[in-house]
Amino acid sequence: MTKMGVRPSRIVDPRKKKVLLDKRFASLCKKAKDLTILCDIEIGMFFFTPGDQNIFAWPSLTQATDRMKNYLASSDKQRQIKMVRHEDFLQSILNAKEGKINQLEQMVDKKEMEYNFNQLVEARRRFDELEVREIRALINLFAVKRTQLDERAKQLNENEIDSNDYNNREENDGHL
Amino acid sequence: MTKMGVRPSRIVDPRKKKVLLDKRFASLCKKAKDLTILCDIEIGMFFFTPGDQNIFAWPSLTQATDRMKNYLASSDKQRQIKMVRHEDFLQSILNAKEGKINQLEQMVDKKEMEYNFNQLVEARRRFDELEVREIRALINLFAVKRTQLDERAKQLNENEIDSNDYNNREENDGHL
DNA sequence: TCCGCTATTGTTAGCTG
DNA sequence: CCAGCTAACAATAGCGG
């Protein structure tokens, strides 16, 4: 642990860094797990290292995402309450004689940044949607192929029983 | 701290729970911060308590979201590699004579669950989009109102200079 | 509810095999 | 690279103001 009152500083040696990361990462996850159990709280963690491929989600991608989803759903409720105050705020700006348009435009910019992120998420959604369709198409394709094969097998059986000599002649002639 | 080898168990007393949560929460955040600095890693954490209103994101909503976004972007790269193998897998199923349709349908179910979540996210997106439009509308409304006020002020000034007695009569009559 | 304290227990950096 | 060790250090549960 870092000394009392001393802020930790960036580790330069990559080997030390790896060891440190492993140990402290395990410790962090343990503490998170403790807290989850002790206080009946949902925790989701995402780890991302810019250069490295050190990517991790705790306790798992799906669970971390679920917990983030729950967080967002809860924070949306709080947001709706804030929205009412927000509207009052905008109304007061409208009523005031001094315009604070810059402020509003900054908010628009902020919202647009959020919008951009959500577009990124939606791109992901479309990708997944496509995947679903592809799998469905493959299932259908398989079903069709199987039906064709079944029918073909049936035909072959019938031919074998009904006209064995005819088939033999065909084979001997060497043409259809 | 929990004893060595002993898993922590759920706290029942709400007061103790609150104290414990506060302390350990602070500790967890400190450890996360340490790790962030020491190993140059991005960490985003989401906390959600089902019943309570104990909602938190670390280091902040925007930063946690950004870091999750980075995580997703990185994991998407890895996903694309997996996708190729995934397609091979599907192809081998198609080529095989025994259908493993159940397997595929389970995957479809899983994908549909993901799709549902993404719809939730998109609902959020639409909400934000609406918000942007509303703010734009308010800005325009303000501009119009201001123009109207300016013109009205101009008119009043002109009237004051041109026909003072007329204005006075209007005021005394108590109507426009 | 929120500090501050402290004995006890847990964590960790550096090192060894 | 990993697992085990340990002195030194940090976290914390319980208690009191």
Automatic annotation (TrEMBL), chains A, B:
<dbReference type="InterPro" id="IPR036879">
    <property type="entry name" value="TF_MADSbox_sf"/>
</dbReference>
<keyword id="KW-0804">Transcription</keyword>
<keyword id="KW-0805">Transcription regulation</keyword>
<dbReference type="InterPro" id="IPR002100">
    <property type="entry name" value="TF_MADSbox"/>
</dbReference>
<keyword id="KW-0238">DNA-binding</keyword>
<keyword id="KW-0539">Nucleus</keyword>
<dbReference type="Pfam" id="PF00319">
    <property type="entry name" value="SRF-TF"/>
</dbReference>
<dbReference type="GO" id="GO:0046983">
    <property type="term" value="F:protein dimerization activity"/>
</dbReference>
<dbReference type="GO" id="GO:0003677">
    <property type="term" value="F:DNA binding"/>
</dbReference>
<dbReference type="GO" id="GO:0005634">
    <property type="term" value="C:nucleus"/>
</dbReference>
<feature type="domain" description="MADS-box">
    <location>
        <begin position="1"/>
        <end position="49"/>
    </location>
</feature>
<protein>
    <recommendedName>
        <fullName>MADS-box domain-containing protein</fullName>
    </recommendedName>
</protein>
